[in-house]
């Protein structure tokens, strides 16, 4: 999905909630890997999946208003991914 502005109000709320939930899972995995409690093979697979999603314009637009709610290290990981496009 590229144009989140074409979504109805209810659809946008659903999309934003979905992205927020997925980003929270990604953040948990990120810190689990950083602390050594997630196997690197699992982390690299998860990270690749989430990186593909955040590269999409719709995900980036949903990320911007909530990025301050995540940990600094994780936010930096996401921001570096977006900037590297």
Helical percentage: over 70%
Structural class based on helices, strands and sheet pairing: mainly alpha
Using the CA coordinates, give the radius of gyration.
13 Å
* Overall spatial form: elongated
Instruction: Name the helix and strand elements from N-terminus to C-terminus, one letter apiece.
Output: HHHH
Helix-strand blueprint:
Layout: H1 9-34, H2 40-54, H3 57-63, H4 72-83
Walk me through this protein's architecture.
The mean pLDDT is 92. The chain is elongated. The chain has one domain (9-83). It is 71% helix and 0% strand. It has 85 residues and is mostly helical. The longest helix has 26 residues, at 9-34. The protein has helices at 9-34, 40-54, 57-63, 72-83. It has 4 helices and no strands. Helix 1 (9-34) packs antiparallel against helix 2.
Quick synopsis:
With 85 residues, the chain is mainly alpha-helical.
Give the key terms.
single chain; 85 residues; mainly alpha; elongated
């Amino acid at each position: 999905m590229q144009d989140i502005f074409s979504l109805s109000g209810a659809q946008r709320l659903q999309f934003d909630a979905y992205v927020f939930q997925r980003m929270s899972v990604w953040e948990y995995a990120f810190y689990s890997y950083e602390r050594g409690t997630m196997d690197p093979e699992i982390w690299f697979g998860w990270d690749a999946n989430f990186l593909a999603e955040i590269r999409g314009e719709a995900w980036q637009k949903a990320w911007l208003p909530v990025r301050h709610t995540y940990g600094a290290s994780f936010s930096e990981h996401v921001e570096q991914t977006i900037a590297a496009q």
